[in-house]
Design goal:
The complex is a heterodimer. Chain A is an alpha+beta fold. Chain A is built from nine helices and 20 strands. Chain B is built from 13 helices and two strands. Classes of the chains: A alpha+beta, B mainly alpha.
């Protein structure tokens, strides 16, 4: 499934004064894919989007769209369109004129404009609203018009800046599905910025996880969720039990024994295997298991301190002797440990994701330096 | 229930009554008086006589009076147009300036208000007069052979109006432009519009309420600022304001002066009504 790249960023940096908000970013968006940039606010994802749209200039590095550098191009010369977080609909124009704006500016014929606006409005199921002003529409309707106004221009790439951020949860879920279906049927490349990890997992073909201006990991939702490569990716997307572990010995079936402060565990063996090397290991709460008897290789034993009913399942927290807390999610209908009981904790070695200590150590160093030096002058992303 | 409402009303009255009292005494009463005498006549000794008539209003169609009206409207219209042409770019630059330059421009705009308007107009006379600074420089440079007659023309009156009233055009426009959502300009650019197109299709329509507010605050005073016409026009250019002034100070025909004033007030109210009907905020007018 290797499609041609349509947007490429190579070594892109962005400074606001002293503030380094995008750090040496390499990113390749493939034609026709739905790529999400996911990260907490202030991680540089919106700035990256704005650089591709042309509202911001990169300090250095190269941005190409369809193989052509956009360095010298103003936003109105670029073949991308944006759906803004605040929608940015023109308040003095009705729905039809808003959607027709891009076509009118390009001096399309009147009949052509009419038919294309009609089909764009039917795409977002907003026919019959042509004469309304944006102020007379609900949030979800404005959202649809903002999308119609962008896709009516047949952009090569549609840039979406947290387009669902202002909607309530229920509408959000509904619009997520609609957007995903729209993207599939139009075949337009979507570059989607969000801080909602669930949204990114549900909608995307690939996710680019960003933190502190650095691209932490890029991959399919499955790869990102099951094989997080950095501590940040493991922590930010879903919940994770994180361990600092030292490799001890190789076991059969590709597994290896690791030693923690509070016991030993099994996980997939790193390649190459170096005894004594430090690793971070992340295990999802729903993959974390418990038993009353010790399991081979695992010596984690602790007390259940929380037992919370959460509808679709039960969430437990187990306190290890070293003070670390481990989260376990048990699906509804399965037995869950009672609060106050003592249990052994284990998992299938294949369910544990290995994070090489080097890369995480380097990333942490970079992050710490920046935080220390520029604390309080951070560029606030809205 | 009824009692509570009555109590509420009394406390409300107690709170607003001092303000209402002075408003009534100083503004409402004189206006009612003006409106009243505008329907009265005068005897030979210029005394106001109570005989209801519309004659004062009918006199507006007298060719001499109508001529003054038309002249006044054209002076005010020209002054308003020039105020927009100068004021809009100024307001646009001010709205987009960095905080320090913005303050500086604001001060430059407001500083002249510290000096009396009449004195500032006299300054223009020293600059533009036949023996004034401008003519002196132009003569010395050999650009002209005899002094330009600038003062005491209609042009000088328009210049004086624009000079006096410009801040009232700049302020409402820059207020609107400052509030303009920059995201809309980005959206326009994103959709393929060049800066000039964005200005014509987005910025200008959205700043129209500010321009309209400025028009009201320049056009109406420009009809009435008789001292500008006196100082800059030297009696060559009669305005409605001059006419009103003369009725009260020279001709002693107060009823006719009152009728002229009522018409000016009516014109103002109509314009303000149009302004609010088009979505303008009264507060933006009052901001100055």
């Amino acid at each position: 499934m290797s499609r041609d790249p349509i947007v490429e960023l190579a070594g892109v940096n962005k400074f606001y004064g002293e503030n380094h908000v995008v750090k040496n970013l390499d990113l390749c968006v493939r034609e026709g894919e739905f790529l999400s940039m996911l990260g907490p606010s202030g991680c540089g994802k919106t700035t990256t989007l704005r650089m591709i749209a042309g509202f911001e200039r990169q300090t250095d590095g190269l941005i190409t769209v369809e193989g052509e550098s956009v360095e010298e191009k103003e936003p109105y010369e670029r073949s991308v369109n944006t759906v803004f977080q605040s929608y940015a609909l023109f308040p003095h124009m009705n729905v039809f004129d808003n959607v027709a704006y891009g076509l009118k500016v390009k001096k399309e014929s009147k009949a052509g404009i009419k038919s294309r606006v009609d089909s764009a409005l039917s795409l977002v199921r907003m026919q019959g609203y042509e004469k309304r002003r944006p102020a007379q529409l609900s949030g979800g309707q404005r959202q649809r018009i903002a999308i119609a106004r962008a896709v009516v221009n047949n952009p090569k790439v549609l840039l979406l800046d947290e387009p669902l951020g202002a909607l309530d949860m229920k509408l959000r879920r509904q619009m997520q599905l609609e957007l995903k279906n729209l993207q599939k049927s139009l075949g337009i490349t979507f570059l989607y910025v969000t801080h909602d990890q669930e949204e990114a997992l549900m909608m995307s073909d690939r996710i680019a996880v960003m933190s502190g201006g650095v691209l932490e990991q890029i991959g399919t939702p499955k790869e990102i969720y099951e094989k997080p490569r950095t501590r940040f990716a493991a922590d930010f997307i879903g919940e994770a039990n994180m361990f600092e572990a030292v490799a001890r010995e190789k076991r059969s079936g590709g597994a290896a024994l690791f030693e923690l402060e509070s016991g030993t565990i099994l996980a997939g063996a790193p390649e190459p295997f170096v005894p004594g090397e430090m690793h971070y290991i992340s295990v999802r709460p729903e993959k974390t298991l418990f038993s009353s008897a010790p399991q081979d290789g695992f010596t984690l034993h602790g007390a259940v301190i929380e037992h919370i009913y959460a509808g679709s399942g039960i969430k437990c927290v187990i306190l290890l002797p070293g003070g670390q807390e481990i989260k376990i999610n048990v699906p509804a209908g399965f037995p869950a440990p009672e609060a106050g009981s003592a249990v052994h904790v284990y998992w299938k070695p294949g369910d544990a994701a290995l994070i090489h200590s080097d890369s995480s150590a380097i990333h942490n160093t970079i992050k710490n330096v920046d935080l220390g030096k520029y604390a309080g002058v951070g560029h606030e992303e809205s | 229930m009824k009692r509570a409402k009555k109590k509420e009303l009394i406390s409300l009255l107690a709170m607003v009554s001092p303000v209402s009292f002075w408003m009534a005494l100083l503004i409402a009463l004189p206006l009612i008086y003006i409106l009243g005498i505008s329907f009265c006549g005068t005897d030979e000794a210029h005394n106001i006589v109570l005989s209801p008539t519309l004659r004062n209003y009918a006199r507006i169609f007298d060719p001499a009076i109508a001529g003054i009206y038309l002249n006044s409207l054209s002076v005010a219209g020209l002054a308003t147009i020039f105020a927009i042409l100068i004021g809009y770019p100024f307001a646009a630059i001010m709205a987009n300036a960095k905080p320090f330059s913005k303050t500086l421009m604001y001060v430059a705009l407001m500083l002249p208000f510290w000096t009396n308007c009449v004195i500032r107009l006299y300054a223009w006379r020293t600059i533009l007069g036949s023996n004034g600074t401008l003519n002196f420089i132009l003569l010395k440079l050999g650009l002209i052979s005899k002094p330009l007659e600038i003062m005491f023309t209609r042009g000088a009156v328009v210049l004086g109006m624009v000079y006096t009233l410009l801040p009232f055009m700049v302020m409402p426009i820059s207020t609107v432009l400052e509030k303009l959502d920059r995201g809309l300009l980005e959206a326009s650019s994103d959709l393929g519009a060049r800066p000039a197109t964005t200005f014509l299709r987005v910025t200008l329509p959205l700043s129209a309420p500010g321009v309209f507010a400025g028009v009201i605050m320049v056009f109406i005073p420009a009809l009435g600022f008789f001292f500008v016409s006196d100082l800059m026009g030297g009696g060559t250019s009669q305005l409605i304001g001059n006419l009103v002034e003369r009725q009260f100070k020279e001709s002693f025909n107060w009823p006719f002066g009152a009728a002229l004033s009522v018409l000016l007030i009516a014109a103002t109210l109509i314009l303000v009504r149009l302004y609010t009907a088009s979505g303008g905020q009264l507060d933006d007018l009052g901001a100055m």
